[in-house]
Amino acid sequence: MLSFLLPVIMTAQTNKIEKLFNKYENVDGFELLNVTKSDAGLENLEGEEHLMDFLNGMHKMYVLNFDTENGDAKDLEKFRSKLDRLLDEEEYEAVIDINGEEEFRMLMRKDDEKEAVRVLMIAKEDDETSFILATD
Fold first, then answer.
1. Residue 39: which residues within 8 A CB-CB, separation 6 or more?
2. Would residue 5 count as lying in a domain?
3. How far apart are CA 63 and CA 36, in angstroms?
């Protein structure tokens, strides 16, 4: 019975953007890193109080990198299209949005019921694009 319930419980705890990141992990050009607070060495950092509260409460960080030299730009466009739909659906709000030859976006979503915060950062520079999802 437990072997049946465990995958259901694990799936319920994974949000749609995490699932999208995991789906693209095996697509050429993409590389996914799952980072926990202890992996990132965040325990002893000091800084602005609100940022430190978020980092100390962070459960997991997903870093999905895409390198155009190793992947197909069409796959990146498909991923970005799916991600944009999810960002609209889950009502993420842009905090920083810099577009041009290089791109940096920071979006946040707060779930008032669970008092949870999710932050998504997108950075594009030259031939590499990075997507970082941090959850608490």
1. none
2. no
3. 11
Residue 49, in any domain of the structure: yes
At 118, the pLDDT band (50, 70, 90 cuts) reads confident
> Look-up: residue for tokens 């498909």?
78
3-state secondary structure of 62: strand
| Structure token digits, residue 136 | 């608490």
The residues facing 97 across adjacent strands are: 105
Q: Domain for residue 3, yes or no?
A: no
What pTM value is reported for the model?
0.75
Residues 80, 66: Cα–Cα separation, whole Å: 11
CA–CA distance, 98 with 41 (Å, rounded to integer): 28
36 touches 60 (CB < 8 A): yes
- Domain, as residue range, for 88: 14-135
Say how far residue 72 (Cα) sits from the centre of its chain.
21
Mean pLDDT of 21-43: 81
**Is residue 70 situated within a structural domain?**
yes
